[in-house]
Amino acid sequence: MCLQIWHIVSASLLVSSSEDDYFRCESVVRNWADASSERGIKEDELTLKDILFFLHVPRTGGRTYFHCFLRKIYTSAQECPRSYDKLRFDPSKPNCRLVVTHDDYSLMSKLPKDMTSVVTILRDPVDRVFSTYEFSVEVAARFLVHPNLTSVAQMSRRIRPKSRAVSTLDIWPWKYLVPWMRGDLFARRDARELGRLRKTEEFSSPYDMEDMVMPLHEFINDPIAHDIIHNGATFQVAGLTNNSYAVESHHVRSCVRKHPELGHFVLEVAKHRLDHMLYVGLTEEHRKSATMFAKLVGAQVLSQSEALNSTFKQETSNQTEPSSSFSDSEADGLNQIEGSTNNQSDSEVPSSTHVEPARENMTVGRLMEIYETCISSLRKTQASRRTLSLKRVAPANFSKKARLSVPATILQQIQYLNSLDVELYKHAQNIFIRQEKHIMQSAEIFIQPEDLQTADCGGSYGCPPWKSLLVIALLAIVVLIMLFLSTGRRTNKVKK
């Protein structure tokens, strides 16, 4: 009897403790959300301010925009120091105008808010999880040229002090995900050699080859994935990643993980911040997104840069900052062992040499032509690099076609685990539609002076003078004809 009473009392205390924890967490999250709400007069979000902050959500194609758009319209002197993937940002460089990073929205605490415009790109949450898994395997597989992890560590100590470039392992979230996947790949390779793992059937899905690679279903259920990947876009836009500058971020994230129903507070903050961004792109709407970016962002950057053209050569000749593109010098151990050249190449999208473009005659149309050429080259290099890396874990060769082999139950689980991102993506789609309509209705805002000769007469700039005179003359002739016909009718009636 006493034992039963003790169990009842214990259960009551646990329930009470759980309820207290929930209300405490609700207060913490609600207070954070209230403090994060940006109240006040809504400014014109479609006008570019002095600083452009590209909040790069991983695996959305942001590196392509950086290399093929932003580096074509900003000079290296305008890039803020360590502005790509150096995660502890210091805006000390004078006149910096471009920040591109995987840092979350909390970086805004380091920037002058009234002088900064934010842009981002979002991707379908299921596709983003697939891509994150595939890229983690791809980069980690490059280390398999080493006999063991001790060799990896030794080479790392030799290379890192000699290179000023940024390695993949310096970048959030890869500095967490790649070492995790790398350790797993080595463990599975060792187990294969000892015959401890069942050999995968020849026609198995690349996403379920446990003797070669961590299966996708294990990947998405691991605590690391829950902490970093799931709902990652929402937490990044809200400024609550494990790389956040906000001191309260850990507490808020912990509460939302314990009580998922509190996630709606985070989602609402993220939605509100998307609403106030200069541009929101969609990975799946690649062509439309690129065109919109060129018209909405590129055109305004070019307009602002006109005043800097006269000092352009001085800027490029006085560069002292190291390039913000980075080399996979550490992750690319094969360069040292196989004798290949250690090129300046980005692991996510290979980097091209930062050649300063001539902006004097740059137009939106020309910018799109440059973008198309650039992205074609980057995709070819990326595909080649990916093929080489995945050979080391063959036959786990990932592709969009292979994704169709993943069971529907796993896809549904990914959606469930990323429910906040699913809702945020829907919100981004609505913003995207509004942006597209705005550009179509107000196209004259984005017409460059150089493009006026080919512009239609419907814009606010109007037609050339001779065209206007011709229209007036034609209208006058039509009026005279109508008057003549009207007068003729009246004369005929009088005669009758």
UniProtKB/TrEMBL annotation:
One of its GO terms (molecular function) is sulfotransferase activity. InterPro entries: Heparan_SO4-6-sulfoTrfase (IPR010635), P-loop_NTPase (IPR027417). It is a single-pass membrane protein. It is found in: Membrane. It comes from the Eukaryota. Residues 310-328, 337-354 have a biased composition (Polar residues). The chain crosses the membrane at residues 466-486. This is Sulfotransferase.
